[in-house]
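Researcher: Good morning. I'm working through a list of sequences from a screen, and I'd like to move beyond sequence-only analysis. For each chain I'm collecting a predicted structure so we can compare shapes side by side. This is the next one on the list. No need for commentary yet; just the structure.
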Amino acid sequence: MYDQFWFAVFPYVCLIIAIVGSAWRYANDRFSYSSLSSQFLESRQLFWGSVAWHYGLLGVLAVHFVGFLIPESILWWNTVPMRLYLMETTGFILALLTLMGLIMLIVRRMSKSRIRAVTSPMDMVLLTVLLVQVATGVWTAIFYRWGSSWYAAFAVPYLWSVLQFKPDVSLVNHLPTVVHIHILNAFLMVLLIPFTRLVHFLVVPIPYAWRPHQVVRWNRREDSPGPLEVEKT
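Model: Good morning. Structure tokens for this chain:
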């Protein structure tokens, strides 16, 4: 019953909430479809953390996506030991890069008072979920060898069975607990999309190619030692 709920029911609960919630947010507050950048409050630490986070994450997602689309090719690739080592090492390095970037972003958000002031409770929930996801992925890579092979052999068929509305829980029953957490946490991230900054992933930034640019100027009133003002044109 435990496995049936978490792996056969919970994924659909997350997907339904994500779809309905995203549609409702777009209909009622479409201008909030943004990552709500805090770059103007502090940019140096953001730059290094963001670069490591985004490049590492894109690499990890690319590896997962390729394995999801062509799992047979991944299993064939891994039949040669040297290619298997290359696959595992590359994935591990990308995961470490992602974890390093995320930790830098969390430290920045917690250590800068101006950024803490604009951090919402949902921001903290999202950062916690992201940290769990990346940490469990790194943990799996360290303590459970050849993850790319059993991802292609067990996790991918399970995910396809969910998409086909025929969830086969038996495919993930015998995977390690940390992998169970990794999978369920991924569904939880889907659920959080309409309630957090993750919603900006639903917007393709094509209009940015031709929209007028924004100039931000920082001015300080001569007659007042107060905070800086932002003038946008």
